[in-house]
Amino acid sequence: MNESAARGPEPSADSSRHEHELDVLHRISQILATGLNQRQMLSEILDILHSERGMERSTIMLLSPDGEELMTEIGHNLSEQRRRAVRYRKGEGITGRVVQTGKPAVIPRVSQEPQFLDRLHERRKAAGEELSFLCVPISIGNEVVGTLSADRPFGESGSLDDDLRLLTIVASMIANDVRARRQAEAERQALEAENVRLRGELEDRFRPENIIGNSGAMRAVYRAINQVAPSDATVLIRGESGTGKELVAHAVHYAGPRAEGPFVKVNCAALSEGLLESELFGHEKGAFTGATQARVGRLEEADGGTLFLDEIGDFSPSTQVKLLRFIQERQFERVGSNRAQRANVRIIAATNRDLEQALADGQFRHDLYYRVNVFPIHLPPLRERKGDILLLADHFVERYARRMGRDVRRISTPAINMMVAYHWPGNVRELENCIERAVLLSTDGVIHSHHLPPSLQTSEASDTTGTGSLRERVELFERDIIVDALKRCEGNMAAAARDLGTTPRILRYRVKNLGIDYRRYRPATHAE
Q1: CA-closest candidate to residue 139, choices 93, 184, 171
Q2: Looking at residues 265-284, what average pLDDT do you find?
Q3: Of 33, 76, 206, 382, which is least surrounded by CB within 10 A?
Q4: Are 212 and 395 spatial neighbours (Cβ–Cβ below 8 Å)?
């Protein structure tokens, strides 16, 4: 047997080509298995198609999220500027047609195909090389999500068939990766949505029942309450007068381990220095004129619970020293006594003063400041939480309507506009007093703008033209009623006329005279 016969038959060209294709597919599968960034992974796949199969200007395009346009994900030797600039619509050019039909396309001669747009790589600007173009769909099931395309120097049709088969296989491999990444992204988004939902449920669950508000600023307050309530840390609640500092103190106390213990409040601003010291620490019989018997102080009353020191910034220097000693050592002495006593008390303090300025002015001790400022909670003024005004107003309407036995059901739109435009220097307390007054004045089950205090009666806030003479006041009342009806009827004049028991002609006449723009109350989709 000769040597040639021993080696067996020589491998055919087809066999070598198929082995080469298998090697290319094996390398691509290894790249897909690495889990690289998608664009980096696709770029390496295109590099292999270029180096191993001689495919030029290979490009992967994927559909946009709305499914209307093809965007270039990666292109071999394609600049970033061109990649971002060029897009195709479904059915546009050869690539758009492949996406629309889901069928591959082979263009033997690009120069003879009128539908070939050549917008991305601008082949016709290059040297006059005759090219073939192949484009296959990237499909997930029956859904086409993109295309894989490449150029070949013009040659035999048989080689194009081989290249088309190879690109089809590669496209299916890419599709599987796209599917896996989409599933992972969908799961990630679902987990994020679930996390947001659960976080919202937790915030609602732990939101104190005695506090009204859903604004971002108030949610931060709720989170702070939930963080500090389970501990015994000293809390300093800061905010303007009327923002609800005592409500926050209650929430911290009743959400913590001392909820079964007493909650004792001391209003530091309402008492003189001598009375405050006696109120806080108690006194012995005969300690001062009028002390006919011993008295237990608020510290002793709060034993096992919480002591709320409202307006701690008004403490006198001597009282600050004694309070500091108690916070440090948990010991105190009654006025007129030398016997030290102990009390297991959590301290919650509140102030509307600028303590930092008081420190600079020497009116507040640095050591006491650091002792009480362990966990500060800032309560925003009402003007910084405009979104909560209507919630609070509805809450107070319900409270005072029930308390006064009145059937007040809602607040008119002009009245709401006035409340939202107002700056509320007295914060929530002022709003509560305002609603109490309005409920008392209402006679038709609705709070109108003229029921609100004069401090809110401004032309900007109420969308009115004056409140002086009798005629102006009547027009104000009429305007209020008409605007409220237009709001309910979404700017429909005929419906508003029926609601008010009048004719459209009369209503149009009054709207024109009062200068009311009924169009502003129409939904955006119906606006003229």
Answers
A1: 171
A2: 77
A3: 33
A4: yes
- Whole-angstrom distance, CA of residue 343 vs CA of residue 189: 52
The one-letter code for the residue type at 470 is: L
The residues near 362 (Cβ < 8 Å, ≥ 6 apart) are none
Distance set, CA 304 to CA 56, 258, 262, 396 (Å): 81, 7, 7, 34
Q: What is the pLDDT of residue 123?
A: 66
Count Cα neighbours of 103 within 13 Å in the Cβ-side half-sphere.
4
Structure tokens at 102: 């889901």
Per-residue model confidence (pLDDT) at position 67: 75
Residue 266 — φ and ψ, nearest 5°? -125, 120
Long-range contacts of the stretch 84-93 (C-beta < 8 A, 24+)? 86/119, 86/120, 88/61, 88/117, 88/119, 92/117, 93/117, 93/119
Q: How many CB atoms lie within 10 A of CB 177?
A: 18
- Pair of tokens at residue 268: 């530091």
Instruction: Please return the burial class of 229, using the count of CB atoms within 10 Å of its CB with bins 0-12, 13-18 and 19+.
Output: buried
Report the amino acid identity of residue 460.
Answer: E
Q: Is the dihedral of CA 149, 153, 157, 160 positive or negative?
A: negative
The whole-angstrom separation of Cα 399 and Cα 396 is 5
Residue 415 phi/psi, 5-degree rounding, is -65, -40
DSSP state of 2: -
- Tell whether the model's pLDDT for residue 156 goes beyond 60: no
Alpha carbon distances (Å) from 436 to 338, 445, 457, 510:
50, 14, 17, 32
> pLDDT-derived band of residue 381, with 50, 70 and 90 as boundaries?
very high
For 492, other C-beta atoms within 10 Å of its C-beta total 18
Q: Are 468 and 431 a contacting pair, CB within 8 Å?
A: no
Predicted confidence (pLDDT) at residue 324 exceeds the cutoff of 80: yes
CA–CA separation, 264 and 306 (whole Å)? 6
Q: Which of 254, 264, 248 is nearest to 378 (CA)?
A: 248
Cα 456 to chain center, whole Å? 31
Pick the closest to residue 427 from 466, 458, 461, 392 (CA basis): 392
Q: How many residues belong to the chain?
A: 528
pTM, full prediction = 0.53
Q: What is the pLDDT of residues 18-38, one digit of tens each?
A: 777 787 788 888 887 776 777
Contact 260, 303 (CB under 8 A): no
- DSSP-assigned letter for residue 271: S
One-letter identity of residue 228: V
Sequence-distant (≥ 6) Cβ neighbours of residue 347 within 8 angstroms: 234, 235, 306, 307, 309, 327, 372
Residue 367, helix vs strand vs coil: helix
pLDDT tens digits along 471-491: 766 777 787 788 778 877 878
Backbone angles phi, psi at 320, to 5 degrees: -60, -40
* Tokens coding 391: 């919630």
- The H-or-E segment that residue 340 falls in is strand 340-342
For 435, residues 6+ apart whose C-beta sits below 8 A from its C-beta are 393, 396, 397, 400, 447
